[in-house]
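Annex B. Sample input.
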Amino acid sequence: MDDIEEVLLKELKKVSDPLDIKIVELVVKKGKGGLNIQAIIYKDEGVTIGDCERISNLFNSRLSLLRNIEEENYNLQVSSPGLYRVFKDQKEYDIFKSRPVKIILKEPLDSGGKVTVLEGELLGIKDDIVAIEVEGKQLNIPLNRISKTKLNG
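Annex B, continued. Sample output.
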């Protein structure tokens, strides 16, 4: 399935990049009726229904050009990440920079501390260190200390 996923991702980027739409996730699963393709897209101004329709139509056109996909039935779903998406990949720390997030830590950052949930503005990631602004103060958190990160509205 990895080969087909790579091909589909490349084709999806051909239609999304010119529109300044980022691909957050592409999930391809084989089902009874053929392939189930789910694309999660994002843009800084927010994803509209029109964006989803546009990407869906353009991507369907690209898929019809691919011979190996043309022979398969497929179901395509294009959507936004949602308000409370749980991060599944490290690249999402860059995609969702400047957005409000909730970070759940594996343990408090300082010994004797009790805080294991941080809410604030995501500043990004560099060298496996996640930067978040909480109440006007920047915190740098090693990625390996994070249990879960999700968008926060």
